[in-house]
Amino acid sequence: MLPHFSFPGFSSKRRFDSLAEHEILALAISSEEEDGRIYAAYAAKLRGEYPASAAVFDDMAAEEDEHRRRLIELYQKRFGEVIPPIRREHVADFYTRKPVWLIENLGLERIREEAADMERQAQDFYLGAITRCTDAETRKLLGDLAAAEAGHQVTAQELEAKHLGQGERETEDAAAKRQFILTWVQPGLAGLMDGSVSTLAPIFATAFATQNPWTTFLVGLSASIGAGISMGFTEAAHDDGKLSGRGAPWKRGLASGVMTAIGGLGHALPYLIPSFWTATAIALIVVFVELWTIAWIQNRFMETPFARAVFQIVLGGGLVLAAGILIGGA
After folding, report:
1. Residue of 299, 294, 318 lying closest to 191 (CA atoms)
2. For the chain, what is the radius of gyration of the CA atoms?
3. Which of 15, 172, 195, 206 lies at a C-alpha separation of 20 to 30 Å from 247?
4. By C-alpha distance, which of 161, 171, 138, 154 is closest to 55?
5. Are 96 and 122 spatial neighbours (Cβ–Cβ below 8 Å)?
6. Do residue 78 and residue 223 come from a single domain?
7. 230: enclosing H helix or E strand
8. Per-residue pLDDT tens over the stretch 185-221
9. pTM of the entire structure?
């Protein structure tokens, strides 16, 4: 078999305005089939935690299947039984869908947004396809489908009213928020606290012991990166999320590891400044901002009273900072 070569300026894809009517109908059929599968995949992902929303996507998948059936009937009537296998990726200037496996990384609200974008793109396609067709029956069907896609926002609201009544929407939104906090906010907050507070003592002890900004920066860099790697692996390894419901371990490990490193690097980076006292003054300001940021996150997402969060974080961070300065200056 000869290898496939591609050359700049040349493409094996067709442009949309070069498609014949039977090819446009074939593209519409394959697009409806793919959208139906995507909605079914959304429903399957959501069924365990959000059954009411899963029912909405089940109904939307059924609607796409009805569109596909109507398109196939028209194609058979006009062009026969053989439908060419034309798909979105075969058309150069056509919109594409994300791979279905990416839905594993999408939350409930993001899935709803993706579905709304899908309906808008489908409507634009049918409106464009009408201008490429001359047969009255074909134009009528494409116009009906464009109107149906435009009306899907209303339909989706009706389906949500049907399946998400009696507080189910609020319940599912609350569950989605809780999942976001458990998977991303809580591990990230723990990492930020660890990185910001635990590195204070070694960084400022080194700073006041050596009064050498570059040495202090290297110590801070190594402490921050090392702590980030350690926290990330610890978070990912100690709980697979299946029983606790805290989400995928790699997500929690990533959030924890990255935020730990950021927390330490915040007050290590000022020591890239050659002047020791200037670097130290800026680092102390950064520490103040870090500690107040942690207190705000605790109050915003963890519902910790702000005064208590400030007292705990600022007091604890202040004690660690003082310990590092005293030890370094001894």
Report:
1. 294
2. 28
3. 195
4. 161
5. no
6. no
7. helix 213-238
8. 888 888 888 888 888 889 999 999 999 999 999 999 9
9. 0.54
